[in-house]
Amino acid sequence: MAKSLRQLAHYIHWQLLLTSVLAAVVLLVTAMATAAEISTIKIDGSSTVFPITEAVAEEFQSAQAGKVHVTVGVSGTGGGFKKFCRGETDIQDASRPIQTSEMQDCKKAGIKYFELPVAFDAIAIVVNPQNDWMKEITVADLKKIWAPEAQGKVTHWNQVNPAWPHQPIQLFGPSSDNGTFDYFTEAIVGKSHSSRGDYNASADHNVVVQGVSRDKYALGFCAFSYAEENLSKVKVLPVVGGEKAPQKLTAVMPSKESVESGTYYPLSRPVFIYVNEASSKKHEVMDFAKFYLQNAARLVPEVKYFSLPAKAYEMAEEHLAKGKLGTKFGGHSEIGMKIEALMKKEGTL
Question: DSSP character for 150?
Fold first, then answer.
């Protein structure tokens, strides 16, 4: 009797073990099958454009009921283009147009692309809320602070303006791989990447905001949306645009109105996504690009950027449909571009 019970227990043990193994195999096979059904869209690039693309990606994934996974990295515009032009990503977020060297890299690798404007942004000049000596700042002041020759020489506020305090300036800004850095240096100093190097640099605009918020004598620049979300931590300065500004000798705050009119000069600019042509042949990537353009007008303002006119998005979608490849910018930014000028360049007016 005891032997029979032991045999029965042994039999039940192996049956349970076999059942567990079979269940594990079924789960593994199911997981593998499910994974095979989920498509992935790889996006990288600008930290400025990231909030827009993240918002679009969240809604797109929800609409796809889990069938498509969208990854959105933040390597900066320059860092992102390095990956994009190696064919490592499907879509590139860019806070400036593709540059000549990047165009050449993509051409060497056989990467063709669609250039799709998705919004306008303003670069905000931010100081600490305790800064009580500045009501505005001029382009000339900004150049005096940020030009390469200022490194190690313009180190105190009163060296920029004798009326300002004899206190060290603590500078914060995006790193050199960032499209905001590229545009800012071209707009303020006169040449892209021409900047002093002795400042606190970060690819994350939130780090710029946090740095300025902790130091009374700090100054920085970042995408407007990051400043707008942290107005309790930083103060945004109006900018006097200089000789080429539409409103001369007038300090202008970044806003929807000043960006659309072009009066926030020279620190407003279009931002883009670039879609790899080969990737666009995958239905999920093309669906995402179309979804982006069809929902940008609604989502862009939600994340504190400035949307384009409806016609601009419609024509961009038409460019996708007709296979209009390449860039309209010739490898460089156009400083102080108005939305109307962008639409003419993109063939939407």
Answer: G
User: What is the per-residue pLDDT for 55?
Assistant: 97
Question: Integer distance in angstroms from the first to the last C-alpha of the chain?
Answer: 94
Enumerate residues 6+ apart whose C-beta is below 8 A from 258: 122, 252, 264, 268
Any idea which architecture 39-119+270-338 has in CATH? Answer: 3-Layer(aba) Sandwich (3.40)
C-beta of residue 145 within 8 angstroms of C-beta of residue 171: yes
Ramachandran assignment for 239, one of left (phi > 0), alpha (psi -120 to 50 degrees), beta (any other):
beta
pLDDT tens track for 194-204: 999 999 999 89
Would you say how long the chain is, in residues?
Answer: 349
Q: Tens digits of per-residue pLDDT, 58-113? A: 999 999 988 999 999 999 999 999 999 999 999 999 999 999 999 999 999 999 99
> pLDDT by residue (tens digit) across 279-331?
999 999 999 999 999 999 999 999 999 999 999 999 999 999 999 999 999 88
Residues of the chain with CATH 3.40.190.10: 39-119+270-338, 122-261
Cβ atoms of 211 and 303 within 8 Å: the answer is no
Which pLDDT value is given to residue 348? 52
In whole angstroms, what is the distance from residue 83 CA to residue 209 CA? 27
- Helix (H) or strand (E) holding 44, with range, is strand 39-45
CATH superfamily of 122-261: Periplasmic binding protein-like II (3.40.190.10)
State how far the Cα of 140 lies from the Cα of 146, in Å rounded to an integer.
10
Given a contact cutoff of 8 angstroms between Cβ atoms, the answer to whether 222 and 123 are in contact is: yes
Would the pTM count as exceeding 0.90? no
